[in-house]
Design a protein that fits this description.
The complex is a heterodimer of chains A (about 325) and B (about 350). Chain A has about 325 residues and is an alpha+beta fold. Chain A folds into 2 domains: about 1-130, 60s Ribosomal Protein L30, Chain: A; about 140-300, Phosphoribosyl-aminoimidazole Synthetase, Chain A, domain 2 (Alpha-Beta Complex). Chain A is built from 9 helices and 14 strands. Chain A has helices at about 1-15, 15-20, 50-65, 85-100, 155-165, 180-190, 205-215, 230-240, 260-270; strands at about 25-30, 30-40, 45, 50, 70-80, 105-115, 120-130, 145-150, 195-200, 220-225, 255, 280-285, 290-295, 300. Chain A has a 7-stranded mixed sheet, with helices on one face. Chain A has a 5-stranded mixed sheet with strand order 1-2-7-5-6, covered by helices on one side. In chain A, α6 runs antiparallel to α9. The model of chain A has no long low-confidence stretch (mean pLDDT about 95). Chain B is globular, with a radius of gyration of 20 Å. Chain B is of the alpha/beta class. In chain B, α7 crosses α12 (about 245-255). Chain B has a 6-stranded mixed sheet with strand order 4-3-5-6-11-10, sandwiched between helices. Chain B starts with 8 loop residues before the first helix and ends in a 6-residue tail after the last helix. In chain B, β5 (about 125-130), α7 and β6 form a beta-alpha-beta unit. Chain B has a domain at about 55-160 and about 245-290: Rossmann fold, CATH 3.40.50. The relative contact order of chain B is 0.18. The longest helix of chain B has 17 residues, at about 210-230. Classes of the chains: A alpha+beta (about 325), B alpha/beta (about 350). The interface of A and B includes residues 243 and 298 of A.
Chain lengths: ~325, ~350
């Protein structure tokens, strides 16, 4: 598990206060900085490809601290023998995603390694972002009385990749949600006060909200019936026995808002094409740093951190 | 069709005036009950207990040892369902064996194994584990493999649920007042096997669907039968018709025959397994690649066997949540996502503080 590696190996050697805080982006001076490697397989999937995902992932990590991307860098590790057509398609997707996110590549590097040393292509992207004056976003700021909302249906990306990998046969409406969240986040920040933003990538909503609960030492109370999940995603999850709340998203965010900002936030999100199904899914309360789910059946139970089953490479 | 939890279970149970134990024998029921927290919504007088309903959990340790020995000593490529991969054998799991060079591929279905075996060639074996639900698809894949001349054998550990239910009822120290019968299995078998059990032992056997309201509906029927003192067998799950699926049963009959088999926790139960029919005998991996493995020694502290028969609950085990967690499981009940221990651990079976 990568989280165990980080805890036991990297943090003792390289841990700075910022790394330990575990936000999606760090601060280099007054600029936000983020980096992410993409090893997804298959590299092409309904709703995107590795190039599209590599840009979305990094601009979204910047957006989760409230930053607008000022420029991106990309590094490509390519397996010898990779078809030029594939690479061209992924590069076009990167360009397209950069335009959608209102940014561009300002530095890049390419390495070719021998066959077998990589799985077709690994793409790393880093981004620098500017945080608007007065904006401060952090998981630690979530506080009792706050509202938790999600910007759209959860689990589409994870379910899409998993069903491709397991050969489950794709539902017609099942595709990755990967998308740059720069615009909706900027609109939200202009309209109301926001304490915390997180994109529920690996480990899905369950992991992300447990991290927020731990960082803020609060209890997050969720209402399962309010969490939007598409039927196709639910079907895949039932088949493989994984909770949709543990399925990754690549184009959704969770926002924690102080009391009184919920109505304005929902109005703003309703006008954003990516966020039409946004929903209020829970509240922050006093607690020991955990997440409690009120199930559809009406019972309350802990929503635990995902246990890290061997999931395929999804990002 | 169903009732919002807890439905009428409260009033029916009050009228009955005693505590009852209902055993579910299907991993999907186990997960649904714990995931939804249904057990906490029911009256305390209705106790739900998990039985031997998780195919991976009931598979004995030496099955894993045998499969690995075939891979290493005879160079057989293994095709397996994913949840078997991390089950600890005597010394290591199939996942460990794969890391050491054994050829082990995870497949989502027996058809996938057939397809891969056909395109790759070379000796291979499907790890045939599962209940009545899975057996027809295994039978179909093996018959196709034979007809197409694909070199795919089967290491058989398929099992039948009704004989295990009888073994639970016969086991000393277990008290089961009724069974919540598995919908998936009943879709194939129909009601007949459950009727027999209900008649012989006088316990209600009600087939239930998997959503909490469907489970509640089945529990209401069980309580009503106990109140009326008329235990019977019936389906509260529309997908499971009384007659089951005769075509699927014919497919099983063509390729498989009942045989004695060993269940973890229950020992050898007569006629409770499915082995290859004589005409497919040459596809029996155990016959084709005979391997001797030393008798498996399970961790003496592990209570998987007791958990599977309902004579212990997961937190009763000294290893539960301490030395045994989903990340480093000791027993199979913690490995499979459908195992009782995994469901208790993951969904906090002990309840909120």
């Amino acid at each position: 598990m990568t989280s165990e590696l980080v805890e036991s190996l990297f943090l003792p050697r390289l841990g700075t206060e910022q790394l330990r805080a575990g936000e999606d982006s760090g601060m280099a001076g007054d600029r936000a900085l983020s980096i992410d490697s993409f090893t997804v397989t298959p590299q092409d999937f309904p709703g995107g490809d590795i190039g599209w995902l590599a840009v979305c992932g990094t601009v979204n990590d910047l957006a989760m601290v409230g930053a607008r991307p000022a420029g991106l860098a990309a590094a490509f590790v390519l397996e010898e023998g990779l078809a030029g057509d594939d690479l061209a398609r992924w590069a076009d997707s990167m360009g397209h995603a950069c335009r959608e996110a209102g940014t561009e590549l300002v530095a890049a590097d390419t390495k070719v390694v021998e066959r077998g040393a990589a799985d077709r292509a690994f793409v790393t992207t880093a981004g620098v972002g500017v945080i608007p004056k007065g904006v401060r976003i952090s998981a630690a700021l979530a506080a009792p009385g706050d509202t938790v909302l999600v910007s759209g249906p959860v689990g589409d990306h994870g379910a899409t990749i998993l069903s491709l990998r397991e050969g489950l046969g794709l539902d017609a409406d099942l595709k990755s949600d990967a998308a740059p969240l720069v615009e909706p986040v900027a609109a939200l920040l202009r309209a109301c006060e926001v304490h915390t933003l997180r994109d529920p990538t690996r480990g899905g909503l369950a992991q992300t909200l447990n991290e927020v609960a731990a960082a803020s030492r609060c209890r997050i109370e969720l209402d399962e019936a309010a969490i939007p999940v598409r039927p196709g995603v639910r079907a895949v999850c039932d088949l493989v026995g994984i909770d949709p709340l543990e399925m990754a998203c690549e184009g959704r965010f969770l926002a924690v808002l102080p009391k009184g900002h919920q109505r304005r936030a929902m109005e703003v999100l309703a006008s954003q094409p990516l966020c039409r199904s946004a929903a209020v899914i829970g509240r922050v309360g006093e607690g020991p740093g955990d997440v409690v789910l009120r199930t559809r059946a009406g019972a309350r139970r802990l929503l635990a951190m995902p246990l890290g089953e061997h999931l395929p490479r999804i990002c | 069709m169903g009732s919002d939890p807890p439905g009428r279970t409260g009033e029916l149970s009050a009228e009955l005036g005693r505590t009852i134990t209902v055993m579910e024998v299907c991993g999907t029921h186990t997960v649904s009950i714990h995931r939804s927290g249904l057990d906490r919504l029911l009256p305390p007088e209705v106790r739900l207990l998990s039985g031997p309903g998780c195919p991976v959990c009931v598979t004995p340790t030496d099955y894993i040892d045998r499969a690995m020995a075939m891979a290493f000593r005879h160079g057989v490529r293994l095709y397996t369902f994913g949840d078997l991969l991390k089950v600890p054998g005597s010394r290591e799991s199939l996942a460990d064996a794969r890391a050491r060079g054994a050829e082990v591929d995870v497949v989502a279905s027996p058809e996938d194994a057939l397809r891969l075996a056909s395109s790759r060639g070379g000796p291979s074996a499907f790890l045939a584990v599962g209940f009545e639900t899975t057996a027809p698809t295994i039978a179909a894949a093996l018959l196709q493999a034979r007809d197409q001349g694909v070199d795919l054998a089967a290491l058989c550990a398929m099992k039948l649920i009704p004989p295990a239910m009888e073994a639970v009822l016969e086991a000393p120290g277990t008290r089961v007042d009724a069974f919540l019968c598995p919908g998936h299995v009943a879709v194939i078998t129909g009601l007949e096997p459950f009727r027999r059990i209900s008649k012989e032992y006088g316990v209600p056997c009600v087939v239930g669907g998997f959503e909490p309201p469907e489970i509640v509906r089945a529990l209401e029927r069980i309580l009503q039968m106990l109140l009326d003192e008329e235990p019977g067998a019936e389906s509260a799950y529309p997908a499971a018709a009384a007659g089951g699926n005769p075509a699927a049963r014919r497919m099983m009959d063509r390729a498989l025959v009942p045989c004695d088999t060993e269940w973890r926790g229950l020992g050898i139960i007569p006629e409770s397994g499915l082995c290859l029919a004589d005409e497919l005998a040459e596809m029996d991996a155990a016959r084709r690649w005979p391997v001797e493995v030393p008798p498996a020694e399970d961790d003496p502290a592990c209570l998987c066997g007791e958990v599977l028969t309902g004579s212990a609950e997961p937190p009763d085990c000294p290893l539960f949540g301490e030395r045994c967690t989903p990340r480093s499981p000791v027993g199979p009940c913690m490995v499979s996502s459908e195992g009782s221990c995994a469901a208790w651990f993951k969904y906090g079976g002990r309840g909120l503080d």
